[in-house]
Automatic annotation (TrEMBL):
The keyword Transferase belongs to this UniProt entry's keyword annotation: no
Keyword Electron transport: no
Keywords: DNA-binding, Transcription, Transcription regulation
Pfam families for the chain: AraC_binding, HTH_18
GO molecular-function term, one example from the UniProt record: DNA-binding transcription factor activity
Alphabetical list of InterPro entries matching this protein: AraC-bd, Homeodomain-like_sf, HTH-like, HTH_AraC, RmlC-like_jellyroll, Tscrpt_reg_AraC-type_HTH
SUPFAM superfamilies: Homeodomain-like, Regulatory protein AraC
Protein known as: AraC-type DNA-binding protein
Taxonomic source organism: Chitinophaga ginsengisegetis
Residue span(s) of domain HTH araC/xylS-type: 177-275
Amino acid sequence: MGKPASEDILVARFSDYLAAHRDIHFPHRHSFYHLAFFTAGSGSHTIDFEKFPVKPGQLYFMVPGQVHSWFFSGEIEGYVMNVSAGFFNAFLQDADYVERFPFFSGVSAEGVVQLPKAAIPVVTAQFEGMLKEIKGEQAYSQDMLRLQVLGMFIAVSRASRQGESRQELPHNYVLLRNFRKLVEQHYMQLRLPKEYAALLYVTPNYLNAFCRHMLGKSAGEIIRDRVLLEAKRLLINADMSIAAIAYQLNFADNSYFTKFFKKYAGTTPEEFRKNIS
């Protein structure tokens, strides 16, 4: 009922957040969900090494572990939210509820939402309500914040799906979410589609055909892309040697890792590190 603990949730105007985090343009990662909503300004935002142009009415949703950096031009305004994975746990019976929103898939492009014009004032008002509530001056302020944040997630999800044809069967989205979750949990140990197919109780051929239909990639490519992404994320840490990264990612040796990285990233790990520093 008091002021929410800062490690659970932070809501701020973007200009205030920028003033307190001046090194925000360097690539960095968070251990919490990170959300930015732009109402004015321009520039670019890079999430997991994929660059997006910043536009008013845009929301960026990031899951824990994603690497991102900003490059702004003009007066930037909007809102920032950091929220811990456990913030909703005291409120929701389903611990995985938040992950079901499409923008929290962990795929960069799916976490970028351009709101229709009619939805911008609605989401702006929701953030303003959170800024008032986060002061914690009234009873049940933390529970009200949980309601407001979940309400905003639902409003954004509805608005971003307007006019979108969703002919896919619901069980397809459940299977896709389960596959992605398994890859996230096991990509360092399990590298073969047949291993994931067994965990999902489907055949390897079905899993490959399903992934091609839903994502335009084979199951093997999705697993490989996740390994490559983690290698890139680890390479931003200059204190970690290439050999240590290869070991952490479960490669047999440093040279095998370097060959893998060059084949799929188009550059050596050393060159990649040099270009992002």
